[in-house]
Amino acid sequence: MFNETILIEYLPILIFIVLALGISGAAVIGSLLVAKQKPDPDKNAAYECGFDAFSDTRGKFDVRFYLVTLLFIIFDLEIAFLFPWAISLKDIGMFGFWSMMAFLGVLTVGFIYEWKKGALDWE
Amino acid sequence: MSIDREIEMFLAFAWMLGHIIVLIVGVLLGVAYLTYAERKVLGAMQRRQGPMTVGPWGLLQPIADGVKLFSKETIIPSQANKIVFLLAPVILFALALVAWAVIPVDKDWVLANINVGILYLFAISSLGVYGIIMAGWASNSRYAFLGGLRSASQMVSYEVSMGLIIVCVILCTGSLNLQEIVLAPRPIWMQIWLFPMFIVFLISILAECNRAPFDLPEGESEITGGFMVEYSAMTFALFFLGEYANMILMSAMATTLFLGGWLPPFGMWFLDFVPGIVWFGLKTCAILFFFLWARATLPRFRYDQLMRLGWKIFLPLTLLWVVGTAGLLLAFDALP
User: Fold this and answer.
1) Angle made by CA atoms B226, B232, B233, in degrees to the nearest 5
2) Which of B46, B108, B219, B315 has its CA at a distance of 20 to 30 angstroms from the CA of residue B178?
3) Radius of gyration of chain A from Cα atoms?
């Protein structure tokens, strides 16, 4: 019973998702059908300021993008912990507060280490 | 099951469907006229007129643009991953629409009043990165790839501070339900305490929507349009619409979290007779105007400045603010 009432609240969202995907899909397909398609090898080539592409794009890229996403995962997880903590802070009181501070403290030490290592620098 | 019950269920379903369609049409119209407003505001700030030709005062310009984009040829690059390439704009735009399901537009007007509304909103707005990274990767073009990477890491960086700001707000309101966040009592000291977070939130949503002065993913002078460079016709239009729909969504989110949603401003109870949706609309428009104003005024950031602001200033600041908020509320026994 409990589960059903919870799930019924999400039914509009599910229908909304289906409708939204349908509308945006229909827009693309409709445009493909309505407009005249005249493909051409030069027109369909990758855009690189007028000349032919030098090499394939699937190659090396800057490692710092990777570092940023790694950092993001750590902090996003932390936020995922903070949400339930923030809601129940009244019930868990001082003990809950200081446990979270200890956790945040550990994270901050890691953050300072990254900062000093230069993982956050983009020159 | 009796026939009465079946009719009742059918009516409830029809009501829900109607509600969704009203929301979608509302957002689409909002997006269309936001593009118009942007051109008009930018024009006025540069002492030009903006669009004036199509319809009275150029009011039909967005519709003309839409029809034009719909009837253009969709160019699918020969080296692209075709399915992902076509799917990316669809996903991006659908996500920008779907988030509206939980936004409380008026007193009893919210499609799905779920009790984790703000989490849902946060999750959906995070998923937007997928559309962009898919577009950048599937285009298989240098500029698109760089633009996609830039955009993804920028959105991800500012999402952290956005998340921490949301934590500050829910510490003060004690609920994840957006309707309850709007209605939660806010004494004046709480508003003053949250005001710096409102400013940081405003700046973060600029970066989250890839808007000027943080529009590096599209920086036309360096990467010629970023992840959208290979897109044309309706696929391009969907990216465009998605970006503007996201702007409206983020403004609505800021309104709901900080400006009291559909309530009259400054607790002016004698203005209660005005429908809540009017206040909601006005507050959202005010924040949207801030978006346009920033675009007309500020030069573009450099990428290192952008990252520095996100990681070295906003992240420590918002983290401190979370600790400070929790500590203050505990110390003065003011937790909701």
Assistant:
1) 140
2) B315
3) 25
Q: Is residue A45 part of a domain?
A: no
E strand segments, chain B: none
Range of the structural domain that residue A85 is part of: 61-123
Q: Which helix or strand (DSSP H or E) is residue B239 part of? A: helix B233-258
Whether A103 is in a domain gets the answer: yes
ipTM tops 0.90: no
Task: Tell me the pTM.
Answer: 0.89
Which residues neighbour B51 within 8 Å (Cβ) at sequence distance 6 or greater?
B36, B39, B40, B43, B58, B61
Closest CA to A27 of B201, B17, B147, B97: B97
Q: Using pLDDT thresholds of 50, 70 and 90, give the confidence band for residue B208.
A: confident
Residue B121's contacts (CB-CB under 8 Å, 6 or more residues apart) are B99, B102, B103, B178, B253
Using DSSP's 3-state secondary structure scheme, residue B109 falls into strand
Structure tokens at A11: 């039914």
Nearest alpha-carbon partner for B88 in B20, B45, B139, B47: B139
How many CB atoms are closer than 10 A to CB A74? 13
Interval B302-332: pLDDT, tens: 888 888 888 889 999 999 999 999 988 888 8
The Cα B286–Cα B263 span in angstroms is 15
Residues 11-50 of A with CB under 8 A from B: 11-13, 15-17, 19-21, 23-25, 27-28, 30-32, 34-39, 41, 43-49
From the number of C-beta atoms within 10 Å of its C-beta (0-12, 13-18, 19+), residue A64 rates as middle
Query: A17, B99 in Cβ contact below 8 A?
Result: no
Domain count, chain A: 1
CA B32 to chain centre: 15
Q: Is the dihedral of CA B167, B172, B178, B182 positive or negative?
A: negative
Structure tokens at B35: 């593009």
**Cα Rg of chain B, angstroms:** 21
Chain B CB contacts of A17 below 8 Å: 94, 98
